[in-house]
Amino acid sequence: MFKIRNLSAVVLFGFLLFFVSACSSSDSSTDSNANSEAESANGEANTSEPKYGGTFTMVTPADPDTLDPHRQSSIYTHQMAGFVYNKLVTYETGPDVDFTDYNVVPDLAEDWEISEDGTVYTFYLREAYWHDKEPVNGRQVNAEDVVATMERIIELPGHQAALLSEVESIEAADDTTVVFTLKQPFAPFLNFMANHFMWILPKEAIDGEVDLTTDAIGTGPFVLEKWDDNVQATYSRNPNFFEEGKPYLDELIYKVVPDQGARIAAFRTEQAEVIGGISPEELDTLVKSNPDITVREVLFPTQEQVYVNMEREPFNDLRVRKAISMAIDRQSMVDSIYGGGEVSGPVNPSLGSWALPLEEREALLPYDPEGAKELLAEAGFPNGFDTTLIVTDGYGEQLVRVAQWITEDLRNVGINAEMEVVEYATYFSERWPKVDYDIGVGYQTYFQEPDEWLRTQMHSQGARNWYNTKDSDLDEMLDDQRMILDENERLEKVHEIQRYILENVLNPIPVSTYYVMTPHQQYVKNYEPHASYGHIHMKNVWLDKE
Amino acid sequence: MGEYIVRRLIYGVLVLFIMVTFVFVVMRAVPGDVVTLQLADSGATEEQIQALETELGLDKSMIAQLGDWLTGAFQGDLGNSLWSGLPVTEIIGDRLPVTLQLSLMSIVLAILIGIPVGVISAVKHNTFIDHLLRITSVGGLSIPNFWLGLILLTGFALVFNWIPPLGYQSFIENPVVNVQQMILPAICLAITLSASIVRMTRSAVLEVLHSDFIRTIRSKGAKERVVIYKHALRNSLVSVITLIGLQVGYLLGGTVVLESIFSLPGLGSLIFETVSARDYPVVQASVLIFGAMFLLVNLFVDVMYGWVDPRIRNS
Questions:
Q1: Is residue B280 less than 8 Å (CB to CB) from chain A?
Q2: What residue stretches are annotated with the ABC transmembrane type-1 domain (chain B) (predicted)?
């Protein structure tokens, strides 16, 4: 058995990094400021003592239908869940942690052990208390809560059940110890436990004493005071939060503002402290009127993809898929439509080191229209062919522009694709999952684990293999990497699989991952978001104003 | 008159029935279903999908579902949302007052602007003022209200560093905040409506002013103000009221976009959200309410005819 003394190691490491960063300037590759003055002000503020108090307002395009985090996979539900709930383990966030670093750190479990054969995970719970609301009334969190939550997750239909598919049994060894026994070694397990579906609920709520659709009682940094459906959710500071001294904000308000123009106007007039993903044009005008804002540039947690139906000709021919890939001028496309980004890969670069290095992605996914024409000729299509390409406008106008760009690129090599814009519900419940298309352009969901990016999409049994992709060698490699418990060894294997995919499978075809610009007000400090769901960084945020 | 209203109400219920049945069938005939939407990315098993279908009552035949829904609707039970599980009556109850208030404010604003301007334009016809007012009203008709909404919002933010406070509050909770939130979208909706009222009032008043009875009244020595307001305007109102009744349909359509621009949780934005989520019961109920509003307004318009024109009342 080996044991990780996580808490102390992380705290020590955190301190070291804090001092290092206090001396040097902050990470300038991901952090860019609207002007240099703001940058220096920001750098100084990082070294000063956090201030308590204040109200932080966020604006969101839509409210979830339910607050129940196990019944709903919607991003809106899970972003809000993170204020209130905790997981057993979570991802590290903070000034020294990159947006795409997936470091698993303690959350409700202060420590854990993994048996040598990798089949038994023992989690030791910390002393933590539920929010002081009926019927839980601030009692201590115990192992029964965790067991009941996990049983609920497995019982309910949905993606989250698949995350626990390798679990054989979950038991409470004592009040503060939970033992997970797996059917076989399963490398993604710990990462899956940090997944945003794994929010721990009190047993009373699972027994039906709390209406989880409209209320939420957790252990998190903020307590849900009131939720007016489609208007706003109001949260107050949790005075009993287990991370001593946190959070800093008195109040957090999550407001529904469906229109992008209205969200920008709200940010402009300081009615919102932060605003999510805005376009380069919008940023330009915003900086003109509000030069003091701080702008953060991060990788979008997913990618645009071109995917083909492998059961239809000619897409079952690897040469045709390669020709499609080589026809696309990825860099120019992402620069002109999104204002910046990079060539993507089978694992999205937002997963940090799990993705192939950028140089390798660029080498394996080249832009080469002449080569594409040659490949098409080899495949028996010297004059190209006609096809139909589907896309939906449900994700916004930019993806449609991507599809238009790709259609043009394909035409340049002789593939005449007629674009069909499909309404979102039809797209997401009929055309895409039921593989009713020739070729399509879309976004993938925000997967949090290389296993999801690879196996879920490309294994012949994958839950989201909506492409008819079948490759028995790939299946075997994908099953194998799940058994490799040594992280470095698994990383190697995951990279190898990605190279194999790009050379031999190539469906879905990764296009690019764009940079998201998220401005926040200059007085907002320690705003260091993470690529996972749930705004887990909000416990660290404070406001530098009177 | 009473018998007439009852007859109209019965027709109204029939129209609503046909409309709702149509929406019911169309919503289920378009591709995309709510169960797959909820479970598509989950890798759910066939049993889990069927279990959810049974839970939501979608495994029955369409006729049976329609029957269930209509039986419920006649008893005031509009079913539950297929996503949140909340009763539809509760959801609509929260949203309806917002749209009602917005529509009412816009109609009142539009009338307050439209009728006086229309009368002035008619009285001063072919003068500079008339031309100016007519050009302005053509402008008002041509501006799309969502564009005006965005311009107002961005303009206020840039020029005054002010926008209506976010987070809707009802008039009872906080009248000051509520009016601040409602006034801009109400103006946007009222501009188009008032422009058509101006044009209709102007031509109707002009026509009446040239009729024989006005000449008679004038020759009796009545004051010009009495001629215009008591006789000419009153006799023009029938066509203006008809116009307002018909325009309410466009107005309700306009709320869909403006509610979303101004973050108002009304019925318009609800329809928009629930159609794409395929939340059938909520869509049906919202359409029912919108239809009922339109029918009631037009019934009210018909009753108003009797009030402004005794000849109609007596016939």
A1: no
A2: 96-301
Residues B61 and B166 in one domain: no
Cα atoms found within 13 Å of the Cα of residue A275, Cβ hemisphere only: 28
Which letter, b or e, does each residue of A332-359 get, where b requires 16 or more Cβ atoms within 10 Å of its Cβ?
ebbbebbbbbbbbbbbbbbbbbbbbeee
Q: pTM score, two decimals?
A: 0.83
pLDDT average, residue stretch A312-322: 94
Residues 6+ apart with CB under 8 A from A171: A147, A178, A179, A181
Is B87 part of a structural domain of the chain? no
Q: Which residue of A59, A213, A426 is in closest CB contact with B32? A: A426
Q: Which residue in chain A is spatially nearest to B84 when comparing CA positions?
A: A65
CATH number for the domain harbouring residue B200: 1.10.3720.10
Q: Is B276 on the interface with A (CB under 8 A)?
A: yes
Q: Which domain holds residue B101?
A: 93-313
| Test the A interface: residue of B263, B267, B278 with most A CBs within 10 Å | B263
**Mean pLDDT computed over every residue of chain A:** 88
SS (H, E, C) B11-43: HHHHHHHHHHHHHHHHHHHCCCCHHHHHHHHHC
> pLDDT-based confidence at B209, cuts 50/70/90?
confident
Q: Do B113 and B227 belong to one domain?
A: yes
Pair (B139, B233) in one structural domain: yes
Separation CA B266–CA A230 (nearest Å): 9
Shortest Cα distance from B126 to chain A (angstroms)? Answer: 41
Which range is least confidently modeled, A323-337, B40-54, B254-268? B40-54
Reported as a single tens digit per residue, the pLDDT across A210-269 is 999 899 999 999 999 999 888 899 999 999 999 999 999 999 999 999 888 899 999 999
| pLDDT tens by residue, B259-270 | 988 989 998 888
Find the mean pLDDT for residues B128-150.
90
State the ipTM, two decimals: 0.81
**Measured torsion, CA atoms of residues A244, A92, A442, A450, in degrees rounded to the nearest 10:** -140
Within 8 A by CB and 6+ apart from A368, the residues are A326
Identity of the residue in A159, A429, A430 whose CB atom sits nearest the CB atom of B43: A159
The verdict on residue B83 lying in a domain is no
Out of A254-268, A501-515, B149-163, B166-180, the most confident range is: A501-515
Say if residues A500 and A316 touch (Cβ distance below 8 Å). Answer: no
* CB atoms inside a 10 Å sphere around CB B5: 12
Residue B80 lies in a domain: no
Structural domains in chain A, CATH included, are 4-66+229-299+515-543 (3.40.190.10), 85-91+98-206 (3.90.76.10), 304-513 (3.10.105.10)
B98 in the same domain as B68: no
Question: What digits encode the pLDDT tens for the residues A473-482?
Answer: 999 999 999 9
Phi and psi for A300 in degrees, rounded to 5?
-65, 135
Distance of alpha carbon A286 from its chain centroid, rounded?
26
CB contact under 8 A, B166 and A62: no
Query: Residue B297 domain-assigned?
Result: yes
Is some CB atom of chain A closer than 8 A to the CB atom of B36?
A: yes
CB-CB contact of B261 with A262 (8 Å): yes
Q: Of B74, B104, B120, which residue sits at a domain end? A: B74
Q: What is the pLDDT of residues A32-79, one digit of tens each?
A: 334 333 333 444 445 578 999 999 999 988 888 889 998 877 788 899
CB A152 within 8 A of CB A197: no
Same-domain check for residues B21 and B110: no
Strand order in the sheet with A222-228: A55-60, A251-256, A232-237, A222-228
B45 compared with A422, residue with greater pLDDT: A422
| Beta carbons of B84 and A66 less than 8 Å apart | yes
CB atoms within 10 A of CB A200: 25
* Overall number of domains in chain B: 2
Give the one of B31, B44, B84 whose C-beta lies nearest to A65's C-beta.
B84
